[in-house]
Amino acid sequence: MMQVIQQIALLTGKDLRVEARSRQTLGLVVVLGILIVVVLGLGLGPQQVASGQAATAVLWVAYLFGGVLCFEKTMAVERHDGALAGLMLAPIDRGVIYAGKFISNLVLMVALALVVTPVAVVMFGFDLSAAPWGFALIMAGGFVGFAAVGTLFAAAVSSSRLQGGLLAMVVFPVSLPLVIASTQMMLHLFRDGEPVGGAGLAVLLAFDAIYLVVSWLVFEVILEP
Amino acid sequence: MDEPEIRPVTVLTAQPAHERTDAVPDTARLAVRMVGLCKRFDERWVLRDVNLDVPSGTYLALLGANGAGKSTLLHTLAMLSPATSGTLNLFGLSATRPAPALRARLGMIGHQPMLYRDLSAIENLIFFGRLYGVSRPRQRAEEMLERVGLTNRARSPVKTFSRGMVQRLAIARALMHAPDLILADEPFSGLDVPSVLALQRLLAELHAEGKTIILANHDIGQSLDLAQRVVVLRSGQVVSDRRTLDTDTDQVTREVIEA
User: Cα–Cα distance between A134 and B22 in angstroms, integer?
Assistant: First the structure.
């Protein structure tokens, strides 16, 4: 078990080091996320913006598009120069490759959120201070499931010519339960002042668990030519 | 499983290597044993009933025209792509399905370098060394860089390397964990003459150290010079398997191109 954890840490460390050197993914994703928040904020008009209720939905749009770009870019690094074959030749389980990539994507998603969320807070006058930890918990729950399916499908479509378009087409519908569950919980949390928990959280965590386990199991099949 | 459609081809040797009485292998010392190996992509059979024994320490050249199945055979040997049917044993152990422990004994030099362009040469080697559980990966990486003549570029990102340097680093990556079986898929393509000579020398050294080398190559003359044994593939089938001492370039050329 310790060896598996070390291997996953090694793969995640490599991904983050590659990103730190190239600065390709995070830069693009953050700019896209901010643009989405600003454009939607302007498009919705002052009344919607002032209500603050559209903020979580707009944030999810930014996270979804930014996330897809993350998944695509981190998998492209592996396809370039056949690096993925190098990993597949190594004496490690395919699930370890999946786990390493999943955690890397999750870290990048969190980095995206750390930049984009304050922009939405300012743009929408969204009072995050009312329940910052509840917000973080719900978003974390959404991100885990989203990164789980995103990592799996990014590997599946990375050799396809359609790539970006296809990945979004596949990942968005599958992520819908996560988005619905988390936006509903946000509404209850910020509009009604209800604490995080109950059926909403159970749905979110159940989808996270299902997506993670299924993706871990299916990843090996997807990698085989 | 459906049986592959075997088209009649001219078999230039009477029997596959493992059945030949003059080449009865000591199975305990076999690095590779393939029996009736077949590989199908969709409806197309790429490997058909391949039987091949490769004793440890052999330097074998795999020849054939484009699409003959050389790369697929190497990918199957590397457990990157499972065989559709047949048996594959590596070092006496079944490798028909991917076996992580066996992978530690393989090193592959492919068409692509399998490196990360944004990382430096030494970072790449240390990463792969750790992945293989190499003890003292930094020390080993430095040794490998010295061996392939890249010590002075150890901290340069791979994206700044020439094609020849990338290929040398790819070889260092493949050798980081001191594999017993080296699979080289057209490693000379795109290299300049000094790089080709350096790589030939390196492979010869590895062979002298007792490593088993299977080299897929297009250059028949070069293969006959380098290897001990030459196997010709055509349409996914082994059409000849002979010692290089017993053959000449014209003979092998005919076997490769014969329609």
Answer: 76
pLDDT in tens, A155-212: 888 766 556 578 888 889 999 999 988 888 888 887 777 777 788 889 899 999 999 9
Number of residues in chain A: 225
Domains in chain A, number: 1
Asked if A77's CB is within 8 angstroms of B131's CB, the reply is no
Dig out the tokens for B252 from the structure: 């092998």
Q: What is the pLDDT of residues A22-56, one digit of tens each?
A: 887 888 889 999 999 888 888 877 666 656 567 88
Q: How far apart are CA A30 and CA A24, in angstroms?
A: 11
Angle at which helices A198-223 and A164-190 cross, to 10°: 160
How do strand B106-109 and strand B93-94 relate by DSSP bridges? Answer: unpaired
Taking each helix axis as running N to C, give the angle between helix A132-157 and helix A55-79, from 0 to 180 degrees, rounded to the nearest 10. 40
CB–CB of B100 and A91 under 8 A?
yes
End-to-end CA distance of chain A: 28
DSSP A98-134: HHHHHHHHHHHHHHHHHHHHHHHHHHHT--GGGSHHH
CA distance A10 to chain B (A): 8
Q: Which amino acid is at B138?
A: R
Boundaries of domain holding A86: 2-223
Cα–Cα distance, B190 to A184 (Å, whole number): 58
Residues of B within 8 A of A17 (CB-CB) are 119, 123
Q: Which residues of A touch B123 (CB under 8 A)?
A: 17
Helix locations, chain B, DSSP H: 70-77, 100-103, 121-131, 137-147, 163-175, 193-208, 220-226, 249-257
Chain A residues in contact with chain B using a Cβ-Cβ cutoff of 8 Å: 7, 10, 14, 17-18, 21-22, 77, 80-83, 85-93, 224-225
> ipTM of the predicted structure?
0.87
Is residue B230 within 8 Å of B242, Cβ to Cβ?
A: yes
Contacts with A10 from chain B: Cβ below 8 Å: 127, 130-131
CA distance B247 to B224: 8
- Chain B residues near residue A83 by CB distance under 8 angstroms: 114-116
**Tokens standing for B96?**
């028909």
The band of A143, judged by pLDDT with boundaries at 50, 70 and 90, is very high
Please tell me the distance from the alpha carbon of residue A177 to that of residue B161, in angstroms, as a whole number.
47
What the block records as the tokens of B13 is: 């040797």
Chains A & B: contacts with CB separation below 8 Å: 71
Q: Which two tokens stand for residue A128?
A: 């995050």
Residue B16: per-residue pLDDT: 40
* Residue B21: pLDDT over 50: no
Interface touch B132/A18, C-beta < 8 Å: no
